[in-house]
Design the sequence.
């Protein structure tokens, strides 16, 4: 039984070794194709590309940070954009709402002020006519007509 386990473990290790070699070969061909890309070759010819090529740990760190930070940064930028658009639209809608409320208030208030002005003017006119007639009736000597009549009566007598 021990022999079967040792033979199965040696066969599994040789199987995994060939799988690893196949994976390594496909990985190197993929990397070779990647390095043959003109944009990558142009980047690798710069000082930054040469530095990252000579420091693979730092290059991997930058790659992981860039790929992992892309989603939160993208979400934040989309949130900021949507928020600014919504605030602009909300501001415009709020301004339209305020102008509508102000306009309706003005439309309701101005006829009321006009009606009040007409009523007060009417009351003052009625009071003026009433007081004027009362003064003319009970105190005719205070009006010009009364003064003219008194002078004319004095002159005739």
Sequence:
């Amino acid at each position: 039984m021990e022999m079967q386990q040792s033979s199965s473990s040696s066969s599994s290790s040789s199987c995994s070794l060939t799988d690893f070699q196949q994976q390594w070969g496909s990985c190197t061909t993929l990397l070779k194709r990647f390095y043959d890309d003109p944009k990558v070759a142009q980047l690798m010819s710069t000082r930054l590309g040469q530095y990252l090529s000579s420091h693979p740990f730092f290059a991997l760190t930058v790659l992981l940070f860039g790929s992992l930070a892309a989603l939160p940064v993208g979400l934040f930028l989309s949130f900021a954009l949507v928020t600014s658009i919504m605030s602009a639209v909300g501001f415009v809608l709020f301004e339209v709402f305020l102008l509508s409320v102000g306009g309706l208030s003005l439309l309701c208030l101005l006829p009321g002020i006009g009606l009040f002005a007409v009523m007060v003017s009417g009351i003052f006119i009625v009071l003026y006519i009433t007081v004027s007639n009362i003064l003319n009736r009970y105190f005719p000597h205070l009006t010009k007509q009364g003064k003219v009549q008194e002078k004319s009566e004095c002159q005739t007598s």
About this structure: The chain has a mean pLDDT of 83. Helices lie at 2-36, 38-44, 47-54, 56-138, 144-156. The two ends are 165 Å apart (CA to CA). Residues 57 and 66 are 14 Å apart (CA to CA).
